[in-house]
Amino acid sequence: MLLYLHIPFCDSKCFYCAFNSYTTMFHLKENYMKALYLELKTSLEKYQPTIETLFIGGGTPSTILAKHFAPIFDLIQPYLLENAEITTEANPNSATLQWQKEMYDLGVNRISFGVQSFDDDKLKFLGRAHNGQKAIQAVNIAYKIGFKNINCDLIYGVANDTLKSVKKDIDIMTSLPINHISAYSLTLEEGTKFFDQKRVKIDDEELSVQLFEYLETKGFKQYEISNFALSNEARSQHNLGYWKYKEYLGIGAGAVGCINNKRYYATSEIDQFISAPNTYEIENLSEEDIKTERILLGLRSVVGFEKSLLNEDEFERAKELIENGQLVLKNEQFFALNYLLADEIALYVIN
């Protein structure tokens, strides 16, 4: 089983961010971490899982002192698979040497930095709280501490982005001691400062293709629509678990879990979560829901999906896409040849 912990605190709200995060409720941090502990304890006792991977996301986990994570690591220790991948997200402005070292000593063995760009003007435009030099410094600190698995996030498709400017970001990023890159095209989501501001984004599929090809020349091979790794060992096992449709516990305000064909949602409000940390809305997933999700998720990644999921009509449509060079069938598994077309392929096959 996978485990996700959500930290909803941020020093500042990026203009594109639609995640459940708050910049004005820091006085609730300690009470929140206590509620997180209680919810996690209840879930661990209920499900008795073997935790294959742990991912601490946000928000910004590096806004929480490492000492507040210590009780949680003690709690999960008996359930952790040996050599489990343990990832924390971090922002360069708050991922200090002390914080990174203390998280590493707790057992975190993979760190993911919200770098987005090294261009200071672009970072300001996005509402980021760090500058390019701070990002470089944070990554180098992680490597010196001993982190062998380091990811950097990259955002592209922002107004004024060009292939040349994005390549420059990639050149700097790949000169650092990292082995994973997550590259996301800017999206304009409801509830963000950028929503309804079309001028802030450029829609250029060719830029995506060229960016992906350039990452390949740098040794970063695409294994999911937005993720690239230097080796198979550098791939995010936590993300792969989602795409393989493994069960997962989601702990924290706004977190989502999926167990026994039920998806559950915790309240996104921090004060409500602190008051009632084990309260959820439940969604029962039908066989058709599960089938659709397995196909959609599989086609966006190297995971693919089983041929046995398709009925006769769907299989005939899938064969058409094989003939058109958009799908491939290997060892009874279907795979997309272009992840950018994964959603369209899935909808054609199953509708």
Concise structural overview:
The protein is α/β, with parallel strands linked by helices and 351 residues long. The protein has 12 helices and 15 strands. Residues 13-18 have low confidence and may be disordered.
Could you characterize what this model shows?
It is a single chain. This protein has 351 residues and is α/β, with parallel strands linked by helices. It has 2 domains: 2-243, Aldolase class I (TIM Barrel), CATH 3.20.20; 287-351, no CATH class. The protein has 12 helices and 15 strands. The strands form 3 sheets. It has a 9-stranded mixed sheet with strand order 7-8-6-5-4-3-2-1-9, sandwiched between helices. The two termini are 31 Å apart. The model is unreliable at 13-18 (pLDDT under 50).
Task: Show the helix and strand layout.
Elements: E1 2-7, H1 29-47, E2 51-58, H2 70-76, E3 80-90, H3 97-106, E4 110-116, H4 120-126, H5 132-145, E5 149-156, H6 163-175, E6 180-185, H7 205-217, E7 221-224, E8 227-229, H8 237-243, E9 248-251, E10 256-259, E11 262-266, H9 270-275, E12 280-284, H10 287-299, E13 305-306, H11 312-323, E14 327-330, E15 333-336, H12 342-350
Parallel strand pairs: 1-2, 1-9, 2-3, 3-4, 4-5, 5-6
Antiparallel strand pairs: 6-8, 7-8, 10-11, 11-12, 13-15, 14-15
Helix pairs in contact: 1-2, 3-5, 6-7, 10-12, 11-12
